[in-house]
Specification:
Helix content: over 70%
Structural class: mainly alpha
Shape: flat
Order of helices and strands: HHHHHHHH
Largest sheet: none
């Protein structure tokens, strides 16, 4: 769903009306569901990736706060999960091709696999956003969000997550 299309305009109007007619304490639900719908409208598989990122970081941030002895291990786990996901989806094929070229230049006939993985929309933005959040929790600058729905909205709220797409030209499938 592109921002400059009639379906987006219709979607926006419906969300706007629902949001303002919903009691204040439930407005976040409208925004969360609209964000997930908008995100899935690009490719439904993207939704699983952002949901997994949300759940992992939600749980690890709470674990960092509760732990007396393993805070650093939970932080390292969060960093590895987030950067590993980003590497897998965004940089793995580049790394694989580069290593193949290096191997060939020194005479080794090694071919690393390349995967045809879809590049999740906005993955860099929300990955670095949750890394910043987890690091702030670790440093004690903020308390972790206890409400899973509110945290999920923090991760996927569409206007913030996709703001770079508006100025990024027509290639809306890249983060």
């Amino acid at each position: 769903m592109l921002f400059n299309t009639f379906p987006f305009l219709l979607f926006f109007i419906i969300v706007f009306i629902l949001y303002w007619n919903m009691p204040k304490k439930f407005q976040w639900i409208v925004l969360l569901l609209a964000s997930y719908y908008f995100y899935a409208s690009w490719k439904p598989a993207y939704l699983g990736i952002i949901l997994a990122t949300t759940l992992i970081n939600y749980r690890l941030a709470l674990s960092i706060e509760k732990s007396k002895t393993h805070k650093k291990q939970f932080l390292i786990l969060a960093l590895c999960a987030n950067l590993g996901t980003l590497f897998l989806f965004k940089y793995f094929n580049f790394f694989s091709v580069s290593m193949d070229q290096i191997f060939q230049s020194i005479g080794w006939n090694i071919v690393l696999p390349q995967w045809k993985l879809l590049l999740p929309l906005g993955i860099s933005f929300y990955t670095f956003q949750v890394i910043s959040y987890v690091v702030d929790v670790y440093r004690g600058k903020i308390k972790p969000e206890k409400h899973l729905g509110i945290f999920a909205l923090f991760v996927c709220f569409s206007p913030r997550s996709f703001q770079g797409l508006l100025s990024g030209g027509t290639n809306f499938c890249r983060s």
